[in-house]
Amino acid sequence: MLEVEKLNAFYGPAQALFDVSLQVRAGEFVVLQGLNGAGKSTLLKALMGLEVTTRGRISYQAQAGRTDIQRWETHIRARAGLGYVAEDRRLFTGLTVRENLQVAAGRDAQAQEARVLDLFPVLKTMLRRPAAHMSGGEQQMLAIARTLMTGPRLLLLDEPCEGIAPVLVESIRDALLTLKAGGMPMLVAEQNQLLAAVADRLIVLVAGKVRGS
Ligand code: ATP
Fold first, then answer.
1. Which mutation among 8, 11, 161 tests ligand 1's pocket best, with the greatest number of atoms within 8 A of CB?
2. Where residue 203 falls among pLDDT bands split at 50, 70, 90?
3. Containing H/E element for 211?
4. In sequence order, which ranges of 2-90 are alpha helices (DSSP H)?
5. Whose CA is nearest to atom 16 of ligand 1?
6. Is the shortest distance between the CB of 45 and ligand 1 below 6 Å?
7. Exposed/middle/buried for residue 38 (C-beta within 10 Å: 0-12, 13-18, 19+)
8. Is the CB of 173 under 6 A from ligand 1?
9. Which GO terms describe its molecular function (predicted)?
10. Given this model, what pLDDT does residue 90 score?
11. What confidence category does residue 148 fall into, taking pLDDT thresholds of 50, 70 and 90?
12. 34 lines ligand 1 (CB under 6 A)
């Protein structure tokens, strides 16, 4: 599904990733671990073509076949099926829950909305609430739900459980397991052991390198 080969990433002159190689196979749930500053966020940004310059190969199984997307613009990667949720969630805090979902909707918006609300039932009870008036965990669910509204084929999540109440971490874990059962491949940067415990595979980054490679 996604194959990264010798990916190097730079913030200006400063290198943050060094020859990172990894794979996410079809239907696989991979958790990316590492200390703060190890490069988890940088790797997800590099996969999306955000903020960093990169060298290396990002081979993605798009609908048109396998292709190197390393030079593609971010919105083209998104259109090809990469669904990304940033650490800061980037919600429209002045809009309601429903409006946040609708701005992301593609074709078949009603059916999509019904599916994401089944995945995160708590959002059903707050459709008219401004996103600003939600807890951090509820906002995180909304951010994932909003990305799902675009119909991604691969999910990239940056620390979805960080700073979130344990009961909501369980809800997020369960939602991700439901997505996995539906065949959604996922690469999730996350330190929380509740997620690591259910991952198919862990990849550990240490100072910008994959440990053990
Ligand atoms: P965290 O859990 O704190 O987000 P992380 O594993 O996601 O940690 P990154 O944020 O990817 O780590 O940071 C990797 C390295 O890149 C660090 O050395 C960090 O200082 C550096 N870095 C991150 N963002 C920038 C930036 N905008 N400009 C320059 N250097 C950066």
1. 11
2. very high
3. none
4. 40-48, 74-79
5. 16
6. no
7. buried
8. no
9. ATP binding
10. 82
11. very high
12. yes
Averaged pLDDT, 68-96: 90
Domain boundaries along the sequence of the chain: 2-87+148-212
**d(Cα 4, Cα 11) in Å, to the nearest integer?**
19
Is 141 a pocket residue for ligand 1 (Cβ < 6 Å)? no
- Cβ burial of 13 (10 Å; 0-12, 13-18, 19+) is exposed
* DSSP category for residue 126: T
CB neighbourhood size of 1 (10 A): 18
* Confidence at 213, pLDDT banded by 50, 70, 90: low
Residue closest via CA to ligand 1's atom 25 equals 11
81-92 average pLDDT score: 89
- b vs e for 44-76, b when ≥16 Cβ sit within 10 Å of the residue's Cβ? bbbbbbeebebebebbbbbeeeeeebbebeeee
Percent of the chain at pLDDT > 70 equals 100
Is 29 a residue whose pLDDT tops 80? yes
8, 18, 40, 162: which to mutate for ligand 1, most atoms within 8 A of CB?
Answer: 40
Class of the CATH domain delimited by 2-87+148-212: alpha beta
Query: Whose alpha carbon is nearest atom 18 of ligand 1?
Result: 37
62, pLDDT greater than 90? no
* Whole-prediction pTM: 0.93
Q: In testing the pocket of ligand 1, which one of 42, 53, 162, 210 has its CB within 8 Å of the most ligand atoms?
A: 42
Q: Is the ipTM of this complex over 0.90?
A: yes
